[in-house]
Write a structure and sequence with these properties.
By secondary structure, the chain is an alpha+beta fold. The protein has two domains: about 1-60 and about 320-360, Malate/L-lactate/L-sulpholactate dehydrogenase, four-helix barrel (Hypothetical Oxidoreductase Yiak, Chain: A, domain 1); about 70-310, 2-Layer Sandwich (Ribosomal Protein S8, Chain: A, domain 1). It contains twelve helices and twelve strands. The chain has helices at about 5-20, 25-40, 50-60, 90-105, 120-130, 185-190, 215-220, 240-260, 290-305, 320-335, 340-355, 360; strands at about 1-5, 70-75, 80, 110-115, 135-140, 160-165, 170-175, 200-205, 205-210, 230, 280-285, 335-340. The chain has a seven-stranded mixed sheet with strand order 2-3-4-11-5-6-7, with helices on both faces. A three-stranded antiparallel sheet has the order 9-8-10, with no helix packed on it. The longest helix is centred in the first third of the chain and has 19 residues, at about 90-105. It is globular, with a radius of gyration of 20 Å. This is (R)-2-hydroxyacid dehydrogenase. Keywords: Oxidoreductase. Belongs to the LDH2/MDH2 oxidoreductase family. Its EC number is 1.1.1.272. GO terms for molecular function: (2R)-2-hydroxyacid dehydrogenase (NADP+) activity.
């Protein structure tokens, strides 16, 4: 069952948990903000739902509480960051702040980061740039999950791409995995005991898996030796565009692991403590192309023209960022949505760390 919880109270609980791990007050605040931001925007697959995975990695040493990101190479417009296996959200915020600073000084900032951790939603970091009046982009690779077109084994990560640009009445934000859905969405459906509604998972290259009770196949997702994986954007056939999602996933690999000399998707393993995902962060100042206000106004008019197109009866035309803005208004007023299974995971973590969770979930 899904219930609503006050976002400010849940943010305080998350803050207390990360403080109990040994993160500083500033670090705990940043992590809590990113996770609750995600749930406030209706992306439950990557909000507090992810805390149990981070807890496992903190316990086994894959995430190192005291690690700090470090610039190991840079120019006026670029940098390579070694994250030293710190928490992904902290690495992501640090790296995008570097990119933003370079963009404000030189028009463009491109940062590629290695040895990081799962950093939540890519859109959070792209939006950091948009909040500063810049265009933002971010990507991350991940351990093998996606089936290359015609392959029977996963090889590419879900490798999302996020883009954000200032607009009116709210920021345009595109954030999507290059697989049909992210791994976290499969996890949410299984927690809710819901069957998969489309070809999100395939075995033996092209056989769909729909049943949430199919533990044999779904438990093997991201096992590089198993004949099961996530479908690329476009499904599993070239006729439906499978090669497009597959190709986009490879492009993400270039901007994350190849340029940073970090770990590629195929080298990432949850069991290997010496490897971690690679990420990229890009900030661009629109002013290098012309008057910034005119550019934003022109883009806003363009988006509004799309919204006002004739729609299928009973349907509404949204552009990217619209649904997130609607979700934010609803969840800020009525609470974020958390399923019972995820809440139980959070309470178990809090109890082990000696954090009192009762005042925050009533």
């Amino acid at each position: 069952m899904i219930k609503r919880y006050d976002s400010d109270k849940m943010k305080q609980l998350v803050f207390n948990i990360y403080q109990a791990y040994g993160f500083s007050d500033d670090e705990s605040e940043k992590v809590a903000h990113t996770l609750i931001y995600t749930d406030l925007h209706g992306i439950e697959s990557h909000g507090v739902q992810r805390m149990v995975m981070y807890d496992h990695f903190i316990q086994n040493g894959k995430i190192r509480v005291k690690s700090q990101p470090e610039i190991v190479k840079q120019t006026d417009v670029s940098a390579v960051v070694d994250a030293h296996f710190g928490l992904g959200q902290l690495n992501g915020i640090y790296s995008m702040e570097v990119a933003i600073k370079k963009a404000k000084e030189h028009g463009v900032g491109i940062v590629t980061t290695r040895h990081s951790g799962h950093y939540g939603i890519a859109g959070y970091y792209a939006n950091m740039a948009a909040e500063q009046g810049l265009i933002g982009m971010s990507s991350t690779n991940s351990r093998p999950a996606m089936l290359p077109t015609h392959a029977t084994k996963a090889f590419v990560g879900t490798n999302p791409i996020a883009f954000a640009m200032p607009a009116k009445p709210h920021t345009f934000i595109f954030d999507a995995a290059t697989s049909t859905v992210p791994q976290g969405k499969i996890e949410v459906y299984r927690k809710l005991e819901k069957d998969l509604p489309a070809l999100w998972v395939a075995k033996n290259g092209d056989e769909p898996v729909y049943d949430h009770n199919d533990t044999h196949d779904l438990d093997l997702l991201r096992d590089p030796e198993a004949n099961v994986g996530l479908a690329p954007l476009g499904g599993v056939s070239e006729a439906t565009g499978s090669h497009k999602g597959f190709g986009l996933g490879i492009i993400v690999e270039v901007f994350t692991s190849i340029l940073s000399m970090g770990n590629t998707s195929t080298e990432i393993s949850p069991a290997d403590l010496q490897v971690g995902p690679s990420q990229s962060f890009i900030a661009i100042d629109p002013a290098i192309f012309g008057d910034k206000d005119q550019i934003v106004n022109r883009f806003s008019e363009y988006l509004q023209n799309i919204r006002e197109l004739p729609a299928i009866p009973g349907k509404t035309i949204y552009v990217h960022g619209d649904k997130e803005a609607i979700a934010y208004a609803d969840r800020k007023k009525n609470g974020i949505e958390i399923d019972d299974h995820t809440l139980e995971e959070i309470m178990t973590i809090a109890q082990r760390l000696g954090v009192d969770y009762k005042p925050f979930i009533g």
